[in-house]
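Work Package 3 committed the consortium to producing structural models of liganded targets before the mid-term review. Because experimental data for this complex are still outstanding, the team generated a predictive model from sequence and the ligand definition alone, so that downstream docking and mutagenesis planning could proceed in parallel. The input record is reproduced below exactly as it was submitted to the modelling pipeline, together with the SMILES string for zinc ion.
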Amino acid sequence: MWSHTEKKVKVSDLQGKVIGLYFSANWYPPCRNFTPVLVEFYEQLKTSGSNFEIVYVSSDEDLDAFNNYHGSMPWLAIPFSDLETKKALNKKFDIEAFPFTKERLEKLMEEEREKHERQTLTNLLTNHDRDHLLGHPRPKQVPIASLIGKTVGLFFSAQWCVPCVKFIPKLISMYQKIKQMLVEKGDEDFEIVYMSNDRDQESFDSYFNTMPWLALPFGDPTVKDLAKHFDVHGIPCLIILGPDGKTVTRQGRNLINLYQENAYPFTEAKVELLEKQMDEEAKSLPRLVYHSGHRHELTLVSEGNGGGPFICCDCDEQGSGWAYQCLECGYEVHPKCLSVADRDSTGNT
Ligand SMILES: [Zn+2]
Ligand SMILES: [Zn+2]
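The resulting structure, written out as tokens with the ligand in place, is given here.
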């Protein structure tokens, strides 16, 4: 990266610092007005010895404009010529809204609304030469029309992906429990469709054979289209569609890790209810506890109260809300993953 004195700075020098990425452009007046404010804030932080750095991600129209504008900034910048990195950062942080004008935001919201309106199960899953999904036993074909009116999970996964292989037994157990529950109620229905990222037909076949649900055929172009449509960046990913074919949540995986089969039907109202229940249950949890997998005492934390999104060190899955934490080690586990160990105050078992 470039410093403001046109000196090159190694990215590795930023390791361990808190970094602000400043998306801005000289031609946009609100940016030009904001830059001096940010400079003042930056210099205050620097004099107080904060371990902080800002990196300018430019949307200037040419190199001269960039040099001029960056000249007014005491921090670093991605080189103007590095279009790839700038584009990737804009995409990663969803800066499509730039320059954040009311018109631009309204246009994006309008596009989002239209996309939502157009979305039906049929136009998501069918293409011009296929109107069915694969079922068991192979080569059973299941018409897509038979899924209309159901809650449907789109499961993006692959056999070569280690977190997927760890997640799938949980998903299968949850799927079977939900199916059982619905048979007893006899009104709604639930289905999962596998979206394969496998490397070849053979691994698809052996992986899909372990799954009790449906699949799009291996190599079907719809898989890629849907990954793009739902902005799937990593697997495993579980997108939940409601009975009307609209997206209910993209957090299916996270919700299953937190609530198992109770997460069904994954709606906002249901999640709110579960969060309340969890807050209620947490009242009876011990504040401090020893867990068999960690040598220090763990503290109960919650979202906004020392906690936040985390990766559970016991089950390797995402978590949020309540957690047991060792701040010193950055160790955190789900309350459900805790196995209490009896220790004395020195930490010895
Ligand atoms: Zn866990
Ligand atoms: Zn610790």
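Reviewers should note the following from the model. The first strand starts at residue 18 and ends at 24. These observations will guide the Year 2 experiments.
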